[in-house]
Amino acid sequence: MSKRSGEFNLGVAGVLLLASVVAQAQVTPCVKDDLGAVPPKYNVDFPTDIQPILDVACAGCHTGGGTSGGLNMNVGAAFGNLVNVPANNSAANMPRITPFDAAASFLFQKINCTNLNEIPGTPFGRRMPRSGPPYLSAANQALILDWIEQGARAARDPDRIFGNGHEGRN
Ligand code: HEC
After folding, report:
1. What pLDDT score does 29 carry?
2. What is the pLDDT of residues 58-77, one digit of tens each?
3. What global pTM score does this model have?
4. Does some domain include residue 17?
5. Is-contact 105 94, C-beta < 8 A?
6. Residue range 122-131: average pLDDT?
7. Mutation test of ligand 1: which of 30, 53, 71 has the most ligand atoms closer than 8 Å to its C-beta?
8. Sign of the CA dihedral running 153, 115, 169, 134
């Protein structure tokens, strides 16, 4: 291979690299923790399934009176501050929780995306819990995912008597 063609190849590689850097600057894809191995939980109950996770893993910053990121998740306050409430972080451009749509729920992205801290300038803030690692276990992330995908209800739905245990996960 001549030196010249070598240079040409390098040039093409450089252009491709530049293009991918530009593309990344526009949309940084979320690298997700894989939750596929966790069995779905049917009819998730916010007070008994979700709030205890927040009480432990988000303590001091968002519970116990904490309001980091403008977000308080104390018992009694969490649901009203999360569901259909726009995120404080304007770069997020989405609600903290969007019922039936974890991909459009900033809280879920904050706990599930492994690469938030590596995005230059950290426009979406850091991965939560901010004190991590450790971050939330796959089991706890999956509970939050199932809760959202089932409609992010305030409590278990007593009228839902049928379920195959395999709904809501995507
Ligand atoms: C050590 C303190 C700390 C802990 C623990 C913590 N956070 Fe945060 N959280 C912050 C800070 C500071 C911000 C704002 C900066 C950022 O996003 O990185 C924030 C921002 C957020 C936001 C964005 C709020 C908005 O509207 O923009 C969400 C959602 C969030 N945290 C969820 C959680 C969850 C869920 C947990 C527990 C699993 C948790 N955090 C644990 C400190 C913490």
Report:
1. 87
2. 999 999 989 999 999 999 99
3. 0.85
4. yes
5. yes
6. 97
7. 71
8. negative
Residue 26 pLDDT level (bands cut at 50, 70, 90)? low
* Residue 82 one-letter amino acid: L
By alpha-carbon position, which residue is closest to atom 21 of ligand 1?
Answer: 69
Q: Are residues 5 and 80 in the same domain?
A: no
125 Cα to the center of ligand 1, angstroms: 8
Q: Quick one: tokens of 134?
A: 């450790």
Residues 64 and 138 in one domain: yes
Quick one: which atom of ligand 1 is closest to the CA of 87?
26
Peptide linkage before 134 cis (omega within 30 of 0): yes
Between the CA of 135 and the centroid of ligand 1 the distance, in Å, is: 12
Q: How far is the CA of 146 from the centre of ligand 1 (A)?
A: 20
Q: Among 3-12, 92-101, 107-116, 122-131, name the one with the lowest average pLDDT.
A: 3-12
Domain containing 13 equals: 1-29
Contacts of 153 (CB under 8 A, 6+ apart): 44, 46, 99, 147
Q: Which amino acid is at 22?
A: V
